[in-house]
């Protein structure tokens, strides 16, 4: 059984999550609840959960305030939030799990199953450090992203990524001074994350960092030459849009 705590300032929200866990998640044991940073810290330190459902907004601060006061975080966290675009983007960059209110039962079950798989092996501290870094630099261009492979968790600055290449349900990340990293997520997912940070999908299989483009070759088949000397094909329908982007750099 996964020892679980719910921290949310709304009693109705806590009751709903508790009921859903009882009815649909038989592998979960709810051991405590709290509604604030102060009471949350107390219940976490006393009961030592394996899984924490944590609302962003609490009665005396935020869930982030609570986490920053903990000396050691050795449990899995599922954040609960109303839709806040900046925070959700940071969650995704940091590979942290979250649920939107109102809670969808299918998403809840999926998050619980993922938590059960990762409780013993996940590096939650690295993910939280990445998240806080991204939140603190929300107005800056420098962002960090977690890339999880079969054996490792990689933390990279997005401006170090030269290009990404699709391989069915996998994405290959290429860098100037690092080995290639292969992640079991689709290119579409990373396009959604990276497009507002200077990345452009020039082809159905290729996403490039515009800051790492050396030149556009206007041959019979158009290519962009990247700083790693790779040649990336440009789809015909993407050519004009790409040229416009170059002019705005």
What topology, given as strand order, has the largest sheet?
2-1-3-6-7
Q: Give the name of the CATH superfamily of the largest domain.
A: Response regulator
Strand proportion, as a percent range, falls in 25-35%
Structural class, please? alpha/beta
- From the alpha carbons, calculate the radius of gyration and give it in angstroms: 21 Å
Largest sheet: 5 strands, parallel
Task: Characterize the structure shown.
- The chain folds into 2 domains: 2-135, Response regulator (Rossmann fold, 3-Layer(aba) Sandwich), CATH 3.40.50.2300; 145-248, LytTr DNA-binding domain (OB fold (Dihydrolipoamide Acetyltransferase, E2P)).
- The protein contains 8 helices and 17 strands.
- 34% of the residues lie in helices and 32% in strands.
- The chain has 249 residues and is of the alpha/beta class.
- The protein has helices spanning 11-24, 37-47, 63-68, 85-93, 105-118, 124-136, 187-194, 239-248; strands at 2-7, 28-34, 51-55, 57-58, 61-62, 76-81, 97-100, 144-148, 153-157, 161-167, 170-175, 181-183, 199-203, 206-209, 213-217, 223-226, 231-233.
- The mean pLDDT is 87.
- The chain starts with a strand and ends with a helix.
